[in-house]
Amino acid sequence: MPHVSPDEALDIIMRRTPDLVAWPQLPRRSYLENMTAQYSENFPGITRDDAKKRVYVSSEAALAGLEKFYEKYLADDIDYFSVSSDVAAGLHALLKRSAASPSIAVKCQTAGPVTFAMMLKDENDKPVFFDENLRDAAIKNVAMKSVWQLKAFAGACRTVFLDEPYLSAYGSAFTALSREDVVDTLKAAFGEVRRLAPAALGLSASSGTDGKDVSIGVHCCGNTDWSLLVDGGADIISFDSHGFAESLALAADSVKKFLEAGGRIVWGAVPTSADVLAAETPASLKKRLDDAVAVVAAKGVDEKLLRGRMLISPACGLGSLDEKTAALALEYTQILAESL
After folding, report:
1. Percentage of the chain surpassing pLDDT 90?
2. Distances (CA, A) of 49 to 35, 57, 89, 94, 115
3. Is 62 a domain residue?
4. Is residue 161 domain-resident?
5. What are the distances in angstroms from CA 66 to CA 9, 61, 62, 134, 268?
6. Of 23-32, 47-56, 205-214, 253-262, which range is least confident?
């Protein structure tokens, strides 16, 4: 969200998306609320450079930090991986509201393991993904940050997203990631979340749908190979249906299997570009959504299945908009969702 005040952002979110409330990330409040910095606390060798408004990994410090990191991880010390109010004011504002109103259903989020490990770099600008030890630490870090949120919200959060904007670069000349790299990294992170979810939620045994205590979602705001997310083990896939419906249709076989197995798709039907949004109305967005569903259905995915497993959201984050336009995007999201 473009706000500086977490409570002002939450007021709008809770009014427009009351069924599942996401805590707002506020990058204009601090550079520490940007995706990489926000989940980097206690990562081995993490170094803040306030002058340049960035975080990076000191290779020398990382060697010493890995021992403590794994000591805490192997002990399942969930609290060590907490997310502080310094880097996530919106999260802590929602924690207070959730404690006062336990009926609120909460959506939590972290950076996805691929995105975190590719965007977090060392002092030589090398992504930690390409260091085997630090990649493993990155996977466990984002998983544990997710699990900490499950614990902190005391059962109010059963949906956690690991956002993967970096996967929009998959397959391009600008990234050297293999399919195996991506799928294995996703599987490892999701597996850690599922392993620790019962303890974080205070459960003695798995009690969720299909033996899962938590639904794991992945959002990618650009074009990617959506079968990666299916093969990686996501329960929910979130994509920009306003701009990339055709790309989902290219993965029709995977999408069909995903939905038939109980997966859900979040259709990002409300654009997050101010100029594009200004040209739309709820009625025109409904028409575009219907057209997007038809494109995927034409490739052999049952339309009733698509609609029956559908959720609606903005296409991506709203932090680049002004506050008025961000509020309008959420208003249109609510109107569109209620029209279905």
Report:
1. 92
2. 16, 11, 20, 28, 20
3. no
4. yes
5. 36, 9, 6, 8, 38
6. 205-214
Predicted TM-score (pTM) of the model is 0.95
Query: What is the token pair recorded at 175?
Result: 């990234």
Distances, alpha carbon 199 to alpha carbons 43, 47, 194, in Å: 22, 31, 10
Burial of 101 (0-12, 13-18, 19+ CB in 10 A): exposed
Q: Is residue 205 part of a domain?
A: yes
Q: Which residues of 51-77 are buried (b: 16+ CB within 10 A; e: fewer)?
A: eeeebbbebeebeebbeebeebbeeee
- Amino acid making up residue 18: P
- What's the CATH code of the domain at 180? 3.20.20.210
> If you write DSSP's letter for every residue of 130-180 in order, what string do you get?
GSHHHHHHHHHHHHHHHHHHHHHTTTSEEEEEEE-GGGGGTTSTT----HH
Query: How far, in Å, CA of 48 to CA of 65, rounded?
Result: 15
Closest of 233, 239, 144, 132 to residue 190, by C-alpha: 233
Q: If DSSP codes are grouped into helix, strand and coil, which group holds residue 54?
A: strand
